[in-house]
Design brief:
Length: 336
């Protein structure tokens, strides 16, 4: 997916105010010594940093994964929420404080891969400054509006934006996130002037729309309960096919845009982790990912499965980093 015509900061000075605001039959992993001869791993609880507030889709999926993986590992996987900075607080901790012993891991998502290429001082190398462990799943993104508002369809959305330049607001979980760039791409293609109002997390963004603070939310499916409850109306989804849960909402492809946006994410640790420890973590997390309980959580939020083993996930991150670098250079993307 390209982001032709994207210009960060075009309206984000105003927007910054919002920022203040498989199966059970899989075998259990073998536990043992790392290849460097360290002791049995794990022999104490593992910390999993989730860089979002509680309540969103990634938080729910990763909490479920942590609980299931902990049983297989014989040690608790303790979740720690660290929201802020467009979901990059976990990456900051991995690259500045965490030891590469396997006892601190964090969610790895595309905003972390993108960030070095849109800042003047890159905070990390997304390929080499982390140990990439496993690819897990993606998000179902979509655009939702207040159910009793004037906008009922995507055509209404476009018509309102054209008739009211600079007045149609939308919220996301942060500046330079995948969903923000997608909205900038749509606005560019349609020659719309939209106002971006980022919040710290998807669930906060959805609530802001339901309460009338913002006109629309373009984010992952944290809006789903409010759509089910009748407070929000879903006007499109960004997956390849329509969601079985929300069959009335068309895809971007059906609306005429050759775009599928799922933003796959996984888990990573600090640079230099022992391969044997990585293998133990991968195997436990893979078993948890394909466990029926985690599949139920993913289904609840319509999250597409995007499993990669350790080698393939490292390759995926490397390819994606090249893509993000190319796009940032071509579009002159900057957030500082």
């Amino acid at each position: 997916m390209g982001f032709e015509g994207t210009r960060l900061g075009r309206r984000d000075a105003l927007a910054l105010g919002g920022m203040a605001l498989g199966g059970a039959a899989l075998a259990a992993p073998a536990l043992g010594q790392g290849t460097s001869g360290q002791g049995r791993f794990p022999d104490r609880p593992i910390r999993l940093i989730i860089p979002w507030p509680p309540g969103g889709s990634a938080d729910a999926q990763l909490r479920s994964l942590a609980e299931i993986a902990g049983r297989a590992l014989g040690q608790s996987v303790v979740v720690e929420n660290r929201p802020g900075a467009s979901g990059t607080m976990g990456a900051m901790h991995l690259t500045t404080q965490a030891r590469p012993d396997g006892y601190t891991i964090s969610q790895m998502h595309l905003s972390i891969v993108r960030r070095p290429f849109i800042t003047r001082t890159p905070p990390w190398d997304p390929v080499n400054d982390f140990t990439h462990i496993i690819g897990l799943c993606g998000w179902m993104f979509g655009i939702a509006v207040k159910a009793d508002g004037p906008i009922k369809t995507w055509a209404d959305y476009l018509a309102y934006a054209r008739a009211n330049p600079g007045r149609l607001t939308y919220t996301t979980s942060g500046i330079a996130t995948t969903n923000h760039l997608t909205m900038e791409e749509l606005a560019s293609r349609e020659k719309l002037e939209l106002v971006h109002v980022p919040y710290r997390a998807s669930n906060e963004a959805a609530v802001a729309v339901a309460s009338g603070e913002v006109m629309s939310v373009a984010d992952s499916s944290a809006w789903a309960p409010l759509v089910d409850g009748g407070q929000l109306r879903l006007i499109c989804v960004w997956t390849a096919e329509r969601s079985p849960r929300f069959p009335e909402a068309p895809t971007l492809k059906e609306l005429g845009y050759d775009m599928v946006v799922t933003s796959p994410y996984g888990l990573a640790g600090p640079r230099g982790m022992d391969p044997g420890v990585v293998r133990v973590l991968h195997d436990a997390c893979k078993a948890a990912l394909f466990d029926p309980a985690n599949a139920t959580v993913r289904a609840q939020f319509d999250m597409p499965l995007e499993y990669y083993d350790t080698e393939d996930y490292r390759s995926f991150i490397a390819r994606r980093a090249e893509y993000e670098k190319t796009m940032a250079q071509r579009l002159k993307l900057r957030i500082d």
